[in-house]
Amino acid sequence: MEQSANSRKVWLLVVVASLGYFVDIYDLIIFSIVRVQSFRDIGIADEQMRSEGEFVLNMQMAGLLIGGVIWGIIADKYGRLKVLFGSILLYSLANIYNGFVQDVNTYAWVRFIAGIGLAGELGAGITLVSETMAKGKRGYGTMIVAAVGVLGAILAYYVSEWFDWRTAYFVGGGMGVCLLLLRVGTFESGLFRQQEHTTVAKGNIAMLFAKKERFLRYVYCLCIGLPIWFVVGVLVTQAPEIGKALSAEVPLSAGKGVMFTYLGISLGDVFAGLVAQWLKSRKKAVFVCQVMILLFSIWYLSSTGISETKFLWLAFLMGLGVGYWATFVTIAAEQFGTNLRATVATTAPNFVRGALIPSTLLYGWLVSQFGILHAAIAVTVLLSGIAIFALSKLKESFNKDLDYMEE
Questions:
Q1: Residue 30 — φ and ψ, nearest 5°?
Q2: Res 168 pLDDT > 80
Q3: How many whole angstroms separate alpha carbon 133 and alpha carbon 84?
Q4: H or E segment at 301?
Q5: What is the crossing angle of helices 325-334 and 282-301, to 10°?
Q6: Structure pTM?
Q7: Residue 150, by phi and psi: left (phi above 0), alpha (psi -120 to 50) or beta?
Q8: Percentage above 70 pLDDT, the chain
């Protein structure tokens, strides 16, 4: 009976972490979806849409980068649950306030605060699930968290279609507040409680740079996620421009493409998780995903005269390839001891998101030299090549015992 009760508590934790990531993804991309509608409503001129949009999005990105460090340290020093409560409270209140903004500067600062809150959700959730479930089954838990979470992007698209932009923000904030009530029944990681009163340094980010081997381990963890956001942020988001270069039959819709990509990512998280369980190897699962990214991206970028239907299918298939997001974060969490695990698992996904900036700068320079299609192929191949190399340098962590600390 006690074992059954504990099992129910563990799966409640998985459900709550899944719903938390669902709300996180909704709030993460809602600005990109309602940008034009919201900017017009607050009086932004059409010729300023792109520049002001980049300003607001960069503020949100800055919040994510800063928040990743803050929440990671808090999770390792004071507990994973504190991050799950604190982060969702912060970004939920920020999103509710976002529904009342009247000017672009306030908009940007609110997105910055929301970004700080959004940075903590996935890393703390994956760490808590990984440390709580049996090592042979934890891949299923993290797979469910990511697969459910990514569906938040689809809800965001439909809410923006059904309601105005202010209501879309209120919905995101309201879901977060409701989720706080569900989290009352969750519990702290046993591994964290065991090391809570030790004298070993906890959440000390400087430890990542103190030893060459540890630093390289961290860099390799970051590198395996590099292709993910380039596919979403450039290959799909710039579909209108890429479609024009491909002489597409009709203008390609970035909005539809993003929705189909996220649907693929959701199923891809399940696919990557199941492949990892089947092969007893997360590294092999990520390698399979890298091959899929290369195959479907090059197919897309060489499809002269592409139809809208073919584009949407390829967007879905590229999403399937980059759907190893949860596996990537799980690998990062499993590579480090309990006193640094949440710091790594929380900073890694946010630093990978931030790595889109240098990737797009390189891409922009290559576009000016070789054209948009050749540039996109070159950067995709480069990022996947780096990811595969980094993957080869990491130790397999599938059945790794996580009850240890970094000295």
A1: -60, -35
A2: yes
A3: 18
A4: helix 282-301
A5: 150
A6: 0.77
A7: alpha
A8: 87
Same domain? For 368 and 294 the reply is yes
pLDDT digits (tens, 9 = 90+) for 16-69: 778 878 888 888 778 877 877 888 888 888 777 766 776 787 788 888 888 888
Tokens 């006193």 belong to 339
Q: 398: which residues sit within 8 A by CB, 6+ positions away?
A: 139, 276, 280, 281, 282
Token pair of 261, please? 């990509």
- Classify residue 57 by burial, with Cβ atoms within 10 Å: 0-12, 13-18, 19+: middle
Cβ neighbours of 257 (radius 10 Å): 27
How far is the C-alpha of 238 from the C-alpha of 258, rounded, in Å? 10
- Which tens digits make up the pLDDT trace of 326-366? 788 888 888 887 777 778 888 888 888 878 778 888 888 89
In a domain, 193, yes or no: no
Which residue, 155, 187, 219, sits at the end of a domain?
Answer: 187
Which residue range is the domain that position 257 belongs to?
201-400+403-407
Q: How far apart are CA 195 and CA 76, in angstroms?
A: 10
Whether the Cβ atoms of residue 238 and residue 258 lie closer than 8 Å to each other: no
Backbone φ and ψ for 406, nearest 5 degrees, come out as: -85, 130
Residue burial 115-134, b: 16+ Cβ < 10 Å; e: rest:
bbbbbbbbbbbbbbbbbbbe
3-state secondary structure of 247: coil
CATH number of the CATH domain containing 42: 1.20.1250.20
Question: How far apart, in Å, do the first and last CA atoms of the chain sit?
Answer: 39
Token reading at 256: 């539809």
